[in-house]
Amino acid sequence: MIKIGNKPVLLFVLLISGIANQLLLAQDVSVQATLTETNIFEGESVQLDIAISGTSLNSLERPEIPSISGLRYLPNRTISGSNYTYVNGKPSLTQSYGFQFIAQSPGSYTVPSIKVTVNGKEFATKPIAFKVLDPKTIDNGNAERAPDIYVRLEPTTQNPVVGQQVVADIVLYFKSEVEVSNYNTVPGWKAEGFWKEELNNPSQARTTSVIINGIRYKRARLLQYALFPTKAGELTLSPYSLTVRIRNSRRTARDPFNFSFGQENKELKTLPVTLTVGRPPAIENAEYIGAVGDFEIKRTIKPSSAYVGESVEIITEITGSGNLPLLNKPEYDFPESLELYNPQENTSITRDNRLIAGSKTFTDIIIARNDGTYSIPEKRIATFNPDKNSYEYFTLSEINFRADIDPNATVTSLEDMRLDIDPVTGLAQWKKKSDTPLTERNSIWVMLFTPFLLFIGAYGYKNYYDKLNNDTGFARSTKAKDKAMEILDNAKTTEDIKEGYHKIQKALAQFIADKLNLPIAGVSGQSLITEIQKKGADKSVITEAKRIFDKCETIAYAPNISQEGLEDDVEKTKQLIKDLGKVL
Description:
elongated
């Protein structure tokens, strides 16, 4: 047992502990003052709220309200309340006070700092600026003519650039005598010229108070969309329609029997909004992949070494916020001796905090047909940051990898292909000697020429097989139709219209590129049309190819088509591929 014989030391330790405890309690306390309205008409009531929060409020004195210029204090209408919560393993107690005032003479004023004593320590709130407005400035005629409720479409900017995210808010405005119980949107709103993504919306709209043309309205943001302009020029957002169920207290007062219970459905529609969309400035010595926002780009290889014939992945990952769904794949200079396959694409998106954010990954699949060291040059990529109004540049380092011959691979030799044939023995059957000469017997000629024909067939098949494995262009051309038909069969069964047309475009573009031995990545539909024109394709075939490419490129922005229409276009694309196969 430890004995403490020095009492002054014990008292000193207790004193220090008490002071430290008081300091810790003071650090956990926060005091905040808010005014329910900062633009108040003369004669209107307003409430000053003071909230005191902390993990422990052992000693708390009610705030003393000083004289506030522009407001008259109503001492008999003060309210108070407390709330206890338990967050992240820590208790939190909030004590609140509400002080009522009446606005006096018009002018600009400030609620001064208010002192509050908590746990023996003094705290002070921040000053609050407010205005008292003269009711005489209101045109009563305009106030009577002003609508009780209306809806607006409010974009965050009127002058974006192509690809820049524009948040479009659907905002409801209504007067204080109007009560809104619920709302329903009218489906089918189209944003022509924009890629549209609906952002996550709160389950319950939060209202604030605003003054518009001298009239006080409540403002509630109902929905929010992320819009990405896909072309420059003046683009108009069409009206947005919704139905609200409201109750108007003034009309209820005029209905003594209240047959309608004061409830009514009202159809509202926003006015069209026109945006002027510009283009990002010109760029030099870099590739612009259409990225507008705040992004990071990195490139990796997996694996860094492989055997001949094994696949290697070049992974390009783009992360950040902005027009992720519209990003293009960077184009790399691959050595000609590498065999390229269709790149893969994967997108992960979140729609929180009024942002489209996440990541987009492009995977180039390559195969080395010969051993050796291969190099993929460095690449400089540019993205446009609208907040900084400038480009940001990323240099992707050079990638090198080694391809070796697999020492454990099985090599097939002519000796392995030798057929061991044993002679057949058994009973002999005697036949009468024929008088027909050997040269006139068909069976003799068949026996003589059969080995020769088999040799020619085997030699031709071997050449075909070798060419199929060693000549990339020949292999692509040979397998082009089967690959395209397989993609189209998948497109026909998909339930996602956009994905179906993406596969139609992929099948047609890959077929033409494979038949002409063109790189599939980065080749536009227009360049493929030019190539089939050079091959002398019929005008009707070229026209149909243009129609399918154009429809696939625009269907994502206005997918107004049924599943039957998708299936019909799949069949037309199959026929187009058959027609193109005759000339390519």
